[in-house]
Amino acid sequence: MRLYKVIHRAPIRVVKIGKRRQQLRFKRAMVALKIALAQEKKETKEMLSIYRRYTHGNVTKEELTQANNQFIDILKGLGLGVFAVLPFAPVTIPLVVKLGKWVGVDVLPSSFNINKPLKEIDQQIAEDEQKHHSDDQSVKK
Hints:
83% of the residues lie in helices and 0% in strands. The chain is mainly alpha-helical and 141 residues long. The radius of gyration is 22 Å and the shape is extended. The N and C termini lie far apart (54 Å).
């Protein structure tokens, strides 16, 4: 009954707030994905550098272990890529991740398992919007 009163009193405001909330959730999800992909890219470059040095014999065991762990992360990502091609991917990928957690298998690469606080993600969104706004200003001049 209370929801009806709120919607009846200010339907446009309720719709605008809901729309803004959805936009903010989507931006947060995309920024979190961007951060995770940037971290994965950096780790992969380090892995390739370590393997290159390994061919010359200039690598410690810790570095080689780190590179091998990153290679396993890449294989995990490729494994999830197979499910992305299948029909109903928005259903199958979360199902596989949830099933993996239930069984005790880590399905996601390590960079996707880090949960960033919302403040950090919101700060990143603000920085991106400020950068985009300054780029638009320089183009207009």
